[in-house]
Amino acid sequence: MLPSSSSRSLPQPGHRYDIAIVGAGLAGSELAWRLARERFDVLLVTQSLDSVGNLFHARVPRAFPIDSLFEHARLAAAPDDTNWALHREVKRILEGTSGIHLLQSCVTRLESGSPHVLHTWEGPTLKADVVVLAVGSFLSGRLSVGEFTEEAGRLSEIAYDFLWRDLAASGVAFAARRDMWSGEDGSVPYSVAYETFASSELSGFACTRFEGVYAVGRCRPGDASYERVLAEAAALAAQLGAREVTS
């Protein structure tokens, strides 16, 4: 796929992006950064700008791959190794990268076509030639602390229930998953139950039901370590960069 020749990072009503990424956690942020550096016109949409690049851990547990956005951010935040310091640097780098439109919005529905159309809770629609779902643990996410459960994918961040229901209504099959985290720095342990794409729905990163739609990161089956998620984002960036434009 070749980058668009149209104006980049100057979105307005009706703007058609090369690539729209839903979710700005580890996978989505890394992917957007890599694609923008290859001169793609990228929309990175998140439900909360206050949670861009957030980890599940309260502190950065170890170094990230040396060529990654997150390692650049970790080094910029040092010696502060808190999640919030990392978030601040990730967001700063993304906002300063030409070619990325970082948008706070809630995507509720995917209308597959040419272009793909993302419907939002707020009303405006978003258009892109390629869509990547990097929604992590937020498809029907349920966060539990003790006996209390809320509709959230992590740290009380709202779940993508509307989008999950829309995909399920389109026939997409999912597999249930639950991840658990021990308390850190005085915080209480918690768990998150959520849905991932079933293996039968994917061919590599591609969603087989929708042409030009991909999934990356924790919403895919398998190991969801930080290292694997960042490696997936790098691999998908290379794959999308090699795609040829079809007229």
TrEMBL record:
Keywords: FAD, Flavoprotein, NAD, tRNA processing
GO molecular function: flavin adenine dinucleotide binding
A GO BP annotation: tRNA methylation
Keyword Acetylation belongs to the record: no
Domain of life, per lineage: Bacteria
Assembly: Homodimer. Heterotetramer of two MnmE and two MnmG subunits.
Organism of origin: Deinococcus yavapaiensis KR-236
GO cellular component: cytosol
MnmG N-terminal domain location: 18-55, 86-171
Protein name in the entry: Pyridine nucleotide-disulfide oxidoreductase
SUPFAM superfamilies registered for this protein in UniProt: FAD/NAD(P)-binding domain
Cofactor requirement: FAD
InterPro entries tied to this protein: FAD/NAD-bd_sf, MnmG-rel, MnmG_N
